[in-house]
Design goal:
The structure is a single chain. With about 375 residues, this protein is mostly beta strands. Helix content is about 0%, strand content about 60%. The protein is built from no helices and 42 strands. The protein has a 38-stranded parallel β-sheet that branches. A 4-stranded parallel β-sheet has the order 1-4-7-10, with no helix packed on it.
């Protein structure tokens, strides 16, 4: 057993770096600091155990050597108690990488895993109260299961990749995003969570699966590009005051009655492909960024207006239903294509330079066009 420090105020300075392996365990009670030298802890059978409060590993010596160096864990990291109260913060400076080659918190949940500064970050399975990254200059890649289902409010900055075969579970409260680029190539499971556009530009790109399986609402307030599947099995997944871009290969399924996918005050680019027995709803206005296709096989409940400015348009190729809507305003070029169904029901429609072409089924109920 190797014990590093004996209290919260201990700072251990290693001028030429630190490499600990072949011990039965590493007990981290103090802070580790180096002068632009690497830190390597653990091996295949040597765990690092975090003790009370926050442990810090800093290869910049509190910013005196800002270049920093690599921080590598070869063995697992565990909280001492498993109650999620032991935190770990890491700072690899302007040139260092942070690499976890084994799991963190899987046997005994850790508290906050915080990336203060690094170029590239590579993580495997992480079970933590909160995952936080304040500054990332390269790409943060997740190769396992990230579980933050009891998380509080946190902030992210930098570029993230959820790798093919990996699962990232976002649990609760809010994520404040600061110039985040998130590429999902695995499974991104959202629970009761808000993804907030704190400092633009932010972009979530889904190349595989975004999943909603629990009650509650997950809301994107940041732009989403969908090249894969958004699968809403329970609860509500919402895009609010943002942009949705759908590629021809994208799809949205609302797999169960009572589940919902909602768009509120959104700009749409490309295609909105969707199906399923659950609710697919535009609760307020949609704006076309280009020639937009609305291809909702089950029922798109349109409760807000449509705005297609110069050079843009909306084309319905699925089923669009305005039942229950109030007065709506339409602007620009609108088409109900062959095979499409457009049901106009209730109150008035106010037209602003509208060209409406119907090549499918246009069903008019109690409606006035003004």
């Amino acid at each position: 057993m190797v014990i590093l420090g004996d209290g919260n105020n201990d700072i251990l300075m290693f001028r030429n770096g630190l490499d600990v392996d072949a011990a039965s365990s590493i007990e981290l009670l103090g802070w580790i600091s180096t002068q632009r030298s690497p830190v390597m802890l653990g091996d295949s059978d040597t765990a690092t155990n975090l003790h009370a409060c926050e442990r810090v590993i800093d290869t910049t010596a509190a910013g005196i050597w800002p270049a920093g160096d690599n921080i590598t864990f070869l063995g697992v990291i565990e909280g001492r108690t498993g109650g999620g109260s032991e935190n770990l913060a890491m700072d690899a400076g302007l040139t260092g990488d942070i690499t976890l080659l084994s799991d963190a918190g899987n046997a005994r949940r850790i508290g906050t895993l915080k990336i203060r500064n690094a170029v590239h970050v590579t993580l495997r399975d992480v079970t933590a109260q909160t995952l936080q990254q304040t500054n990332g200059r390269g790409t943060t890649t997740f190769n396992g299961i990230v579980n933050t289902t009891t998380s509080g409010n946190t902030s992210f900055g930098g570029s993230f990749t959820n790798a093919a075969g990996a699962t990232w579970i976002e649990g609760s409260n809010s994520r404040f995003l600061n110039a985040v680029t998130f590429n999902n190539n695995g499974t991104l499971e959202l629970r009761d969570i808000n993804l907030i556009n704190n400092a633009a530009p932010n972009l979530y790109t889904n190349n595989a699966t975004i999943l909603k399986t629990t009650a509650g609402t997950a809301t994107f307030f940041v732009p989403v590009t969908n090249n894969g599947l958004i699968d809403v099995q329970a609860g509500t997944l919402s895009l609010t005051s943002t942009t949705y871009t759908g590629s021809p290969t994208s799809n949205i399924t609302v797999a169960a009655s009572g589940a919902a996918f909602t768009l509120s005050n959104c700009n749409i680019t490309g295609r909105l492909n969707a199906s399923g027995p659950g609710d697919i709803t535009s609760s307020s206005g949609l704006t076309a960024n280009n020639a937009v296709t609305l291809n909702v096989a089950s029922n798109l409940r349109l409760l807000g207006g449509l705005t297609a400015g110069a050079g843009t348009s909306f084309t319905n190729t699925g089923r669009l239903n305005t039942s229950g809507a109030g007065n709506l305003t339409y602007t620009g070029t609108l088409t109900n294509a062959l095979g499409g169904t457009w049901i106009e029901s209730s109150n008035g429609r106010f037209f602003n330079t509208v060209t409406f072409t119907n090549a499918g089924l246009l069903e008019l109920q109690s409606i006035s066009f003004v």
